[in-house]
Amino acid sequence: MVGDLGLSETAYGLSYWLPTVVKGFGVFNTVNGLLNIIPWICVAFALWWNPCHAELHRGNRTLHIVAPMLIGAAGLTLSVLVPGHALKFAFSCIAAAGIFAGQPVFWTLPPTFLKGATAAAGIAAINSVGNLGGIAAQNVVPMIKDATGSDLAPMLFLAACLVAGAALVFVVQAVLRSYGRQPDTVIESAGSAAPG
Predict the structure, then answer these.
(1) Model pLDDT, residue 191
(2) What is its main location (predicted)?
(3) Distance between CA 183 and CA 64 in Å, rounded?
């Protein structure tokens, strides 16, 4: 649940905040809108590539969840630290791709430990807790901006959320393994035949 909270909070935070960051570069509204298309093109590619790569390398879903989260955190952090608007924007694009790329693979985990009727309730609970990230992001990010006077400082908060979420994915994996569940094992689709 908390892993999805980190993903959702960061996704909402970046979605809400990136146009403000780009506007801080001194561009006109039309240019701001056009520039804000670029991160979503990066996200579209990452949403296609990461799950395809995860499928090719079955048995290691954790890597395909955590690595994009850490890439996203690094991108957010570097978007604050590097000089120049172009570099800041480029790292924001990398961050956006990382934030979203792990989400499809993340949602393959709940069926490894939720079965039957509990699956529906469990997935709904995970999604509900994750969506609280939207509430937190739209309130905490502006508070950080007001406290620091920086449009970019909130990105450090979002990066910390991603790192915490990535760490919690490892914790959940360890707990599942301690109970004899193998979260990185392949889940066969309902239509596939069992090996004979």
Answers:
(1) 36
(2) membrane
(3) 13
CATH superfamily of 2-178: MFS general substrate transporter like domains (1.20.1250.20)
- With a cut of 80, say whether residue 186 has pLDDT above it: no
The 8 Å CB, 24+ separation contacts for 14-19 are 14/39, 14/76, 14/92, 14/95, 14/96, 14/99, 14/158, 16/137, 16/138, 16/141, 17/141, 17/151, 17/154, 17/155, 17/158, 18/92, 18/96
Q: Which amino acid is at 183?
A: P
Per the confidence metrics, is the pTM higher than 0.85? Answer: no
Q: How confident is the model at residue 188 (pLDDT cuts 50, 70, 90)?
A: very low
What is the residue-wise DSSP string for 156-196? Answer: HHHHHHHHHHHHHHHHHHHHHHHTT--TTSPPPPTTSPPP-
> What does the block give as tokens for 10?
């960061």
